[in-house]
Amino acid sequence: MNKAFLIGRLAADPELRQTGSGIAVTSFTIAVDRPYSKGTDRQTDWIDIVAWRNSAEFVCKYFQKGSPIVVEGSIQTRVWEDKAGQKRKSVEIVADNIEFVPRTKDAASGAPSFRTERNEFAPPIAEPAPVVYSAGSADDFTVVDDEDLPF
Q1: Count of C-beta atoms within a 10 Å radius of residue 134
Q2: Could you give the dihedral angle defined by the CA atoms of residues 43, 51, 86 and 20, in that order, rounded to the nearest 10 degrees?
Q3: Domain residue limits, the chain
Q4: Phi, psi of 113 (to 5 degrees)
Q5: Could you tell me which residues are beta bridge partners of residue 93?
Q6: 3-class DSSP state for residue 24?
Q7: Which CATH number fits domain 4-123: 3.50.50.60, 2.40.50.140, 3.30.70.20, 3.40.50.300?
Q8: Are 18 and 24 in contact (CB under 8 A)?
């Protein structure tokens, strides 16, 4: 089975391109921190990702440098020849699914935070605007107890 699941941050703004036949594609790199262990320096891996069609458009529309991202895909290797005629090998993840990183509440402050750690290159992340409903009232909603959920 060839399946990869990664959570990281974009190293640069993704750019949408089109193939000759008009198919959307983007290539980008994400920074993925290795687990930190006491007495060692924190290490980061830089993973190349390729997204096609709707996934490429989604990434370019909603993500930018420093954005946390979840990528699910498969590992692909390709061999190619550089300008000097030397054979090169590339390893990348071909994205099948791309998602936003789920948010959790910070235990100390109660403020929303991302599950991943911040990297030094990432710009500050603005909090999303509160949801505003243009019609209806609080009486239109009912509180659901966790005991009522089927899962």
Answers
A1: 4
A2: -160
A3: 4-123
A4: -150, 160
A5: 49, 75
A6: strand
A7: 2.40.50.140
A8: yes
Q: Sort strands 87-100 and 103-105 into parallel, antiparallel or unpaired.
A: unpaired
- Answer left, alpha or beta for residue 39, where phi above 0 means left and psi between -120 and 50 means alpha: left
Question: What is the C-alpha to C-alpha distance for residues 90 and 76, in angstroms, rounded to an integer?
Answer: 8
Token pair of 60 as six digits: 């370019």
Q: What is the pLDDT along the chain (151 residues), one digit of tens a residue?
A: 999 999 999 999 999 999 999 999 999 999 999 887 777 788 899 999 999 999 999 999 999 999 999 999 999 999 999 999 999 999 999 999 999 998 765 555 555 455 444 444 444 545 555 555 555 555 655 565 666 555 4
Helix (H, G, I), strand (E, B) or coil at 61: helix
Beta strands in 59-129 (DSSP E): 68-81, 87-100, 103-105, 112-114
Predicted TM-score (pTM) of this structure: 0.65
* Residue whose C-alpha is closest to residue 16's, from 8, 27, 31: 27
Quick one: tokens of 101? Answer: 């990183």
